[in-house]
Amino acid sequence: MPRHIAGREALRPPVVATTVxxxxxxxELLREATNSHDAARMASLFAEDYQSAQPLHPxxxxxxxxxxxxxxxxxxxxxxDFTSELVASxxxxxxxxxxxxxxxxxxxxxxxxxRGVIILVVRDGLIAEARLYMEPVELGGADIxxxxxxxxxxxxxxxx
Length: 160
Known about the structure:
By secondary structure, this protein is an alpha+beta fold. Helices cover 24% and strands 34% of the residues. The protein is globular.
């Protein structure tokens, strides 16, 4: 049965964050940097030759720490109360997976909300690569039946 929640509560994930006791990974440092609203601090976590990929939006790929600084400067200007929550995470060697909930309000007062997964590759203590699967939260969108019809276009069921 679909769960319909009105208002801001609908933006909060029902998942409890998981962490490994005694380990501060790059994902936690990233969360702290984003919540500090300091774009230079954020950029300092990335390698000069950092490579970013957004597989759902291939044309958004970019490289370099300077572009990270430019991007996050714009984020913090456009969403001054930006909040980043690390919902769940996993670390396997130099690869860190994080599920994120980003929220706030744009400068015009409209709601900002994105959720998704970011996969980092950390080398020499810096983020060397990342694949971002972050998408805007769709409130009031189609239910699962309509989404299945739209996405997969199954043939109509035969009439009895």
